[in-house]
Amino acid sequence: MSEQNHPDAQQPAPAENADVDAAASASEAAAPPLANARRLRWPLAWVLLGPLLWLAADALLKLQAQDTLAQWQKIGPATVVGSAGEAIWQASWPFLLAVAALTLAGLALRLAIGRLGWLRVAPLMLGLWVALWALGAVALAAQHFNRSGHGEETLLNVKLLLARPVKASARASGGFLAHVQPANDAAAPPLSVRLLSEQPVTLATNDALLLIVAHGRWWGRYVTAWHPLCATGGAADAAQTPGSGPPTAAPAP
């Protein structure tokens, strides 16, 4: 009799059912974002791995390198321009290339996110980030061992074509950014090198200089010291690169 009089006593109200269903749907909808946030939390720590790897490699190489090794400056062919337009292009093309590369990378990233989604692209971007920093650390190590395993040093007599003063930086002393030409070969192309000097030195066009050049283990040539030549052909000691001794290398062929 009681069951017939109260048929709805054992069944929840329709409004209560709707509230329960809505709460369940909301919890199910909120579960995937929370799970994705937890899943992406630990890879974010890898963002710091790349810079830390590079800094550790740089610090270790500085501990092993000699003080004079860090002062070596690469010598190579100078860029000769014939007009103001060529000079502007030579000065601006690295910036233009960087802007083009960043633009293409941004477009590629946007296209990849649109097709694959951020959750699939993020691990790839993270791996590329760490790989780029790791390649930078490898490049630092290659430069260090290329210089430390250098070959025999040679003497190179050059004539100064032009020199521009350069201020000291965190990695190198001040000096001059110079264009020089081998004194014994007037047809040889000019060379570009940064001449370091901790003491005030005055240079003029057509001055005779003596460069001490070392060949790298795998590539390149480096100026380990330099001296302005006197009228009699002797070397002035005041301008030699810090930490270098008197010229004792074999003459260049």
- Report the count of strand segments: 7
Q: What is the ordering of alpha helices and beta strands? A: HHHEHHEEEEEE
Radius of gyration: 33 Å
The residue ranges in which pLDDT falls below 50 over 5 or more consecutive positions are 23-31, 231-253
Mean pLDDT across all residues, rounded? 75
Large-scale geometry: globular
Quaternary structure annotation: single chain
Please report the distance between the alpha carbons of the first and last residues: 121 Å
Please give the order of strands in the largest beta sheet.
1-4-3-2-5-6
Helix content: 40-55%
Structural class given helices, strands, pairing?
Answer: alpha+beta
Please report which band the strand proportion falls in: under 5%, 5-15%, 15-25%, 25-35%, 35-45% or over 45%: 15-25%
Largest sheet: 6 strands, antiparallel, barrel
How many helical stretches?
Answer: 5
Task: Write the SSE topology.
Elements: H1 2-5, H2 14-41, H3 49-64, E1 73-77, H4 84-116, H5 118-148, E2 153-166, E3 175-182, E4 191-196, E5 208-215, E6 221-228, E7 250-251
Parallel strand pairs: 2-7
Antiparallel strand pairs: 1-4, 1-6, 2-3, 2-5, 3-4, 5-6
Helix pairs in contact: 3-5, 4-5
What does this structure look like?
- By secondary structure, the protein is of the alpha+beta class.
- It is built from five helices and seven strands; from the N terminus they run αααβααββββββ.
- The protein has a six-stranded antiparallel beta barrel.
- α3 packs parallel to α5 and α4 crosses α5.
Q: Keywords for this structure?
A:
253 residues, alpha+beta, 6-stranded antiparallel β-barrel, 5 helices, globular
